[in-house]
Write a structure and sequence with these properties.
Strand order of the largest sheet of chain B: 3-2-4-7-1-8-12-11-9-10
Radius of gyration of chain A: 22 Å
Radius of gyration of chain B: 19 Å
Structural class of chain B: alpha/beta
Distance between the termini of chain B: 18 Å
Order of helices and strands of chain B: EHEHEHEHHHHEEEHEHEHEHEE
Shape of chain A: extended
Order of helices and strands of chain A: HEEEEEEEE
Oligomer: heterodimer
Largest interface: A-B, 36 and 35 residues
CATH superfamily of one domain in chain B: Thiolase/Chalcone synthase
Strand order of the largest sheet of chain A: 6-5-4-7-8
CATH architecture of one domain in chain B: 3-Layer(aba) Sandwich
Number of strands of chain A: 8
Number of helices of chain B: 11
Strand content of chain B: 15-25%
Strand content of chain A: 25-35%
Helix content of chain B: 25-40%
Distance between the termini of chain A: 84 Å
Shape of chain B: globular
CATH topology of one domain in chain B: Peroxisomal Thiolase, Chain A, domain 1
CATH class of one domain in chain B: Alpha Beta
Number of domains of chain A: 1
Chain lengths: ~150, ~350
């Protein structure tokens, strides 16, 4: 006698992480301002402006709450030239990672520069943000920086 | 504080690709060998601590698999750090100093060959300001090298000299992955990789494991003819905001070195965990190492760089030279994070 076919219980399953993280009042404000096309930093008690907005002074560890608007143009302080992008890179053509000190900031922020060729890059060059048309509150709302 | 000393060290062959061998199979031979070298077995170990990173295995709690390499029945006391195993050694020292243990086993391991290492390392960065841009580890190190070149602190020739010396030294290290004679001119003739870095300025991708034994004073003297005493050790870190750091300097390495007592005596040998050629120059400057100090006679990370073990390897190589009577006083250094963000410095003595 044939074995009865067992009834199999099946259920679709999607692996996902259903929580969201709050970015908090400092990083959250920086990201919200990016969505509006503005860049903000935080001011330390000795008057330095940290960009991107930092929650704490990396030197004194004091909590920072005062926001300061800075420009979307600045100066490249150092850079690396990625001649052969890897799959994760957002730009799939030769580009630079760079530290960029924005006008009004006392420290540099990490981003990318689309300069076309390595010979167009140098430390000290001025660059301006290339904003995304649709912004969603992410550091990638700035697509990259480009030479002025 | 109780004294502690390194009494044994073994590393696996450093290989670009360890094939089908899993992590446990990489760890098991070095654990067995280091215990045999001093004549102990797992039942003699009071505390076991490992250093590894789950991101390399791509699974949460993957480090637990590593325990298959040690005997865990009857139950053992063990811990793990999601860092280079040099920090697992630090945890063992805390156990010894507090009187909780007399003999500790440390091991570190990884297979970084299956993934894209420079991208995996991106995930250790700030998740809001940095990770979405996918800055890879090599591009970030290149920012630091450029800053040093721009400041006139180093030249590309200086970087090539570090590489040539490291690979030449590695000829004497049978475990090294990369070794050989190459002239500075040959190296400088190589094309750029992530400018200003050439491929040889970057540590290779390496699979492997290392194991080390550290003991309290009485146990060390009983098991080892010439223990490598840990006279000072300190760990300091800098902000994760790369642009807020002066990348040409390493104040954390300088401070850790001072606290560890590097300058309290002459240094015979220093093993510096510098995964990029220019970083060795930063570390030499910040630790105040004189020109006559033998730097990275093992070949250093540029000759083989097992993630999560390469820092422990620096301790192991200095300790081995002291245990074998080739050095009297040495400096061991381990780093973690982007552009030398974290630095652990120790002074070892005969």
């Amino acid at each position: 006698m044939a074995e009865p076919t067992p009834e199999l219980l099946t259920k679709s399953f999607e692996l996902g992480y259903t929580y969201t993280r709050s970015t908090g009042p400092v990083i959250g404000h920086f990201l919200s301002e990016l969505r509006e096309g503005r860049i903000v930093g935080t001011r330390t008690s000795d008057g330095r402006v940290l960009v991107p907005a930092a929650e704490y002074d990396p030197v004194s560890a004091e909590a920072l709450t005062e926001f300061v608007n800075v420009g979307d143009e600045g100066v490249v302080t150092t850079w690396s030239w990625v001649v052969d992008p890897i799959s994760h890179h957002l730009m799939q053509k030769p580009f630079a990672f760079a530290l960029i000190q924005l006008d009004g900031a006392d420290v540099a922020m990490l981003h990318m520069v689309d300069a076309g060729s390595e010979s167009a890059m140098r430390s000290g060059m001025r660059v301006r943000a290339r904003w995304a048309a649709e912004r969603r509150g992410s550091i990638t709302d700035i697509i990259c920086f480009e030479p002025t | 504080m109780r004294e502690a000393a390194i009494i044994g060290y073994t590393q696996s062959a450093q290989r670009r690709y360890a094939g089908a061998a899993n992590e446990s199979e990489l760890i098991m031979p070095v654990v067995r060998e280091v215990m045999q070298s001093v004549g102990v077995s797992q039942k003699d170990i009071d505390f076991t601590c490992s250093g590894s990173c789950d991101y390399f295995q791509g699974a949460a709690f993957a480090f637990v698999e590593g325990l298959n390499a040690v005997a865990t029945a009857p139950p053992i006391r063990e811990s793990h750090v999601e860092m280079d195993a040099a920090w697992a050694l630090y945890e063992c020292l805390l156990k010894i100093w507090s009187g909780e243990a007399d003999l500790c086993l440390v091991y570190g391991f990884s297979k970084s060959s299956p993934g894209e290492l420079r991208s995996v390392l991106t995930l250790q960065l700030d998740p809001y300001y940095q990770v979405p841009l996918w800055p890879d580890a090599i591009s970030l190190a290149a920012l630091q090298a450029r800053a040093m070149l721009d400041a006139g602190i180093i030249s590309e020739r200086d970087m090539a000299e570090v590489v040539a010396r490291s690979r030449r030294a590695a000829l004497a290290n049978p475990k090294a992955q990369l070794s050989g004679e190459s002239s500075v001119e040959e190296l400088l003739a190589q094309p750029g990789f992530v400018s200003p870095l050439r491929r040889h300025d970057c540590a290779p991708i390496t699979d492997g494991a290392s194991a080390l034994l550290v003991a309290s004073a009485e146990t060390a003297r009983r098991l080892c003819a010439r223990p490598a005493w840990i006279r000072g050790i300190d760990h300091r870190m800098e902000t994760g905001m790369l642009g807020a750091r002066d990348l040409t300097r390493s104040p954390s390495a300088r401070y850790a070195g001072a606290r560890a007592g590097v300058s309290a005596g002459a240094v015979d040998v220093a093993e510096l965990h510098a995964p990029f050629s220019h970083q060795e120059i930063i570390l030499r400057r910040e630790l105040g190492l004189a020109d006559g100090v033998s730097i990275n006679p093992s070949g250093g990370a540029l000759a083989g760089n097992v993630m999560m073990a390469a820092g422990l390897d620096r301790f192991g190589h200095v300790a081995t030279r002291i245990m074998q009577g080739e050095a009297g006083r040495g400096v061991a250094h381990a780093t973690s994070g982007a552009c030398l963000q974290q630095n652990l410095v120790a002074v070892l003595e005969a």
